[in-house]
Each structure stands twice: as C-alpha cells, then as structure tokens.
Amino acid sequence: MLFPTALILASSARLASAATAPVFAPPSKGPLVQTANYTSFSNNTLNDKKVVKGKAFSRIIYVWLENTDFETASSTPIFESLSEQGILLTNYNSVTHPSEPNYIASVGGDFFGAHGDSMYHIPSNISCVVDLLEDKDVSWATYQESMPSDEFYGFAATSPDYIFPGTAPYPFYMRKHNPLIIFDAVSQDPERVKRVRTFNDFANDVVNGTLPQWSFVTPNMANDAHDTDIDFAASFLEYWLLPLLTDPRVNGEDTLILITFDENETATIQNRVYAVVLGTAVPVNLRGTTDDTFYTHYSELSTVQANWGLKSLGRQDTNATMSNVFSFVAQKTGYKNVHVSAAQAPQLNLSAVAPGPLNSDAYIPFAAPNLKARGAGGGSVLLRPGLDTKLTAASLPPAVNLAALNTTTPWQMSPETTSGKNIIPCAGAACP
Ligand SMILES: *[C@@H]1O[C@H](CO)[C@@H](O)[C@H](O)[C@H]1NC(C)=O
Ligand SMILES: *[C@@H]1O[C@H](CO)[C@@H](O)[C@H](O)[C@H]1NC(C)=O
Ligand SMILES: *[C@@H]1O[C@H](CO)[C@@H](O)[C@H](O)[C@H]1NC(C)=O
Ligand SMILES: *[C@@H]1O[C@H](CO)[C@@H](O)[C@H](O)[C@H]1NC(C)=O
Ligand SMILES: *[C@@H]1O[C@H](CO)[C@@H](O)[C@H](O)[C@H]1NC(C)=O
Ligand SMILES: *[C@@H]1O[C@H](CO)[C@@H](O)[C@H](O)[C@H]1NC(C)=O
Ligand SMILES: *[C@@H]1O[C@H](CO)[C@@H](O)[C@H](O)[C@H]1NC(C)=O
Ligand SMILES: *[C@@H]1O[C@H](CO)[C@@H](O)[C@H](O)[C@H]1NC(C)=O
Asked: CA neighbours within 13 Å on the CB side: how many for 88?
C-alpha cells in the first residue's frame, strides 16, 4: 500500500512527510507504450480529421499536478528547466480549496459553491468547455492516468501497486481530479464520454496520430504529487513529459502545453501556484521569460476562447478580473487584459464561503449564465438544451442557510461525501 493516510487526510496529505518517501517507478516502458499497470488496455482510437487553426496555437494540452506551493515547484530542477523552455507565469492562482472545485472551475467557469471532494455531478443543462470547443469543431479529450477504463464513472479505482510490487492494489485513480466526468453534459452523452480516456488510450491516440486539439491530462495520485512529493512528480515529468516535448505527434506545430497545480499547499496564504506554458506555439523570443499578469484557472477557459474565437460560458470565464488571457495569446488575438494589482487581487484561498448548488450547507439552485456577458472569444454565451434562461442568479431564492457558512472552518468542515443535492452517494471501499 503506497500511503494509506493519503486517503484519510484528503487533499492535505503529503507522502513527503512519511518516514520513507517512495521513489518514482515508471508505470510503463515509456509514455507511448501501453501497460498492464494501468489495468485496461486500449480498444479504440479517436478519429478526428479536422484541425481548426487557432490564432496563437492549434493544440493545447493541460497537465495538472497537485497541492504544491509556487516556491516549492519553481525551485525544483525539472520545473526550473521547464521554466527556461517556456514562459513562467509568476502570478497564476487557484480559485479555492480543496481539489475538486478547482478542477470543476477550470472547465465549467465556476465551482458552484463546492468545498469538498465529493461525488458531485452537474446537470446536463449546465455548459462546460466541451460545448464551446464542439461549437467550433475543435477536437478534445481528457486523459486520466490509472483510470481503469474509458468512460469510468466511479469515485475511485485501485490498480496494481507498481511502486511497491507485491502489496495490495492502490487507489491511483480519483474522480475528483477528472473534471469533465462530473458534468452530465459529458458523462451522460454516449459520444462525448468516449473522450474520457485512459493513459493507455493516450498512447494509442498519439501513436495513431489522433491526439486531439484540446486535452486535459491528469497524472495518477502518486505521479501528480498528491500522495507523494514534488520530487516524485518531477521524476514523473522527466519520464512522461520530456520525451513528448520532442515528439512531433504531441508537440508538433503550434502546440501549447500548460503545466500547473490545482492549488497551493496550505490555505493560510494566497493560492498562487506554479504554472508554465511551453511548446512550439510559444514565441522563441519569449522562451525563458516570466509573465507576472494576474491569472487564475479561469484563464484556461478565456485563453482557448480567445484563441479559437469561441463562445463563452457566461460565468467567471467572462469576469475580466478573474480571466486574463495568457499574454502572448492576448497579444495575438487582440484581447485586452486587465491589470490586477496585489491590493485588488481577490482572496482565492477561501473555501466553504460561497453558497451554491454544490454546497449543501448553503444551497441555491444552478443559475443560468449571464447572457449579456462577453468573453475573450468575443462571441455570445453558449446555452445548453434544457437551460431555463429565466433562472438568473438574481431571480433565485437566497441560500437556505447562509449562517452555516459563518460557523465553519475552511474546506474540510463538511466532506459531503454521502449526501446533499447534486451529490451522488459514494459506494465502495475507496470512499472517504
Ligand atoms: C509496471 O511497473 C513496474 C515498476 O516500474 C515495472 O517494472 C513494470 O515493467 C511495469 N509493467 C509493465 C507491463 O510495463
Ligand atoms: C473498451 O472501451 C470501453 C469504453 O469505451 C470500456 O468500457 C471497456 O472496458 C474497454 N474494453 C477493454 C477490453 O479495454
Ligand atoms: C492504433 O495504433 C496501434 C499501435 O500502432 C494499433 O495497434 C492500433 O490498431 C491502432 N488503432 C486503430 C483503431 O487504428
Ligand atoms: C487567505 O490569505 C490571506 C492573505 O495571505 C490571509 O490573511 C487569510 O487569513 C487567508 N485565509 C484563510 C482562510 O486562510
Ligand atoms: C502559497 O502562496 C503564497 C502566495 O504566493 C506564498 O507566499 C506561500 O508561500 C504559498 N505557500 C503556503 C504554504 O501558503
Ligand atoms: C468578478 O470577480 C471579482 C473578484 O473575484 C468579484 O469580486 C466579482 O464579484 C466578480 N464578478 C461577478 C459578476 O461575478
Ligand atoms: C436545469 O435542469 C434541471 C433539470 O431539468 C432543472 O430542474 C433546472 O431548473 C435547470 N436549471 C436551469 C438553470 O435551467
Ligand atoms: C456572517 O458574518 C458576518 C461577519 O461577522 C456578518 O456580517 C454576517 O451578517 C453573517 N451572516 C450571516 C448570514 O449570519
């Protein structure tokens, strides 16, 4: 067993604090070789023929790691070398604690009051980035390391403990780090859900030349530093990312790769995380530079909107303060970023203070997006079937129990793993 207390302590767990920190072991012979360590082998490949040219890049790959402070990551050798190859974003911020709301925010434009790592689901009339991408025929997928099969819906999954062979299977996969499966608009759509894929299918898609234009990559609970430490994650990047950087099937023409972290380690100070953009799309004269523009995870949405002229979600992706577009992309697309001084920067280390449909302590229903909003892509707000535009934020009743938010301490106060609206009861041994 890799590190049992990791599950108990949820997102604050650090294997580094254990007496014997594990040493990285490769799950496979290489990032493009399928392996039994991932449980299921690939049985299909994507088949997207169309490539939609973007203004600053034609492919974007997000790689999210876990729970590390900016200073810790930026002073670790592999990350230092990545910073030299790309643009280090020195003022990139997570939006809350703990993990899952950050992942939801990065694809949904809001975390909807979530303050736990529960088995949330978001109804199918609520839009996410996939709607924006498909609206302009931009291909997409998410690749989840150690997810036992494509389309997997469960809360967690164990697989062979290849780091400590001979011990019990380890819960390498957790749904809380798989943002798109949380949206019914993806998970309940038989065509879309095929694009929630395993790492063996990542290998398959790359080898077959069908890696899509937008990908969200989640390494497993050991490789993303969640149950380990930054050195372990660094060794993973050395094994997995570095060879792909020189592979034209991944980092071909016009490719942008964002490496970042879901959140900073502790909640008591601002929530700044390491973020670097690299890849062939980064202009040569900007490689090895830093950019101190105020960004958040919502910038991941606004940047693709600007790049491909997408519609918006009409949520925090259209809040100018919260969603500056990565500068070199803003320059190429003519989008004007706003300056957010340190004094103006919102506190993003807060948790369990926002009412919302994923907060059973202070519940309010899902609201329609702001139809008048204009995002970085310039287009209108995309509406999903079944969305009632009359249910504006202003029209909804106030949260049932706002006072609850005042009596609680941050993030772990109410794990919400088994009950609550928009929360599916978690079943099985891996439930917290
Ligand atoms: C599984 O991982 C272990 C540890 O790194 C490695 O020795 C083994 O070769 C891997 N198995 C496969 C099928 O790649
Ligand atoms: C094939 O893929 C489907 C989902 O696309 C998955 O449910 C199934 O387990 C996979 N089969 C194998 C043998 O990997
Ligand atoms: C994808 O590539 C693999 C390895 O080259 C090959 O075995 C497989 O048949 C291909 N899949 C499809 C659907 O073409
Ligand atoms: C958030 O960070 C601010 C500024 O560093 C700090 O004053 C505040 O106490 C933090 N809030 C929490 C809930 O930790
Ligand atoms: C979190 O981020 C803040 C702001 O960048 C930084 O000063 C702090 O060292 C980080 N780490 C912790 C443990 O708060
Ligand atoms: C935009 O973001 C700022 C900073 O977090 C916040 O104060 C403001 O309420 C947001 N505006 C809207 C319309 O959500
Ligand atoms: C979304 O759909 C659900 C289920 O049909 C419905 O109850 C809810 O009012 C809808 N919400 C919005 C904002 O349209
Ligand atoms: C929560 O606390 C703040 C500050 O103490 C207070 O102003 C506010 O009225 C409280 N809200 C509720 C709903 O109790």
From this structure: 19
Amino acid (1-letter code) at residue 324: N
pLDDT of residue 269: 66
Give the distance (Å) from ligand 7 centre to CA of residue 112: 14
Structural domain boundaries of the chain?
A: 51-413
Q: d(Cα 236, Cα 281) in Å, to the nearest integer?
A: 23
Distance between CA atoms of residues 106 and 178, nearest Å: 11
pLDDT digits (tens, 9 = 90+) for 42-80: 878 999 999 999 999 999 999 999 988 898 999 999 999
Q: Taking the model in full, what pTM does it have?
A: 0.91
- C-alpha 184 to ligand 5 mean position (Å): 34
List Cα–Cα distances, 72 to 66, 68, 90, 393, in angstroms: 12, 7, 13, 39
| Mode of pairing for the β-strands spanning 275-278 and 59-65 | unpaired
How much is the pLDDT for 164? 94
With beta carbons less than 8 A apart as the criterion, state whether 102 and 111 touch: yes
**Which class is domain 51-413?**
alpha beta
Distance from C-alpha of 106 to C-alpha of 261, rounded to nearest angstrom = 12
Ligand 8 site, residue 406, Cβ cutoff 6 A: yes
Which residues contact ligand 6 via a Cβ below 6 A?
319, 321-322, 346
Q: Do the Cβ atoms of 66 and 225 come closer than 8 Å?
A: yes
Counting ligand 5 atoms within 8 A of each CB, the residue from 272, 274, 296, 350 with the most, and so the one to mutate, is 272
pLDDT one-digit tens code per residue, 331-342: 999 999 999 999
DSSP 3-state of 417: coil
Q: Any idea which residues carry the catalytic annotation?
A: 227
Question: What HEC string does 134-149 produce?
Answer: HHCCCCEEEEECCCCC
Convert the pLDDT of each residue in 99-131 to its tens digit. Answer: 999 999 999 999 999 988 889 999 999 999 999
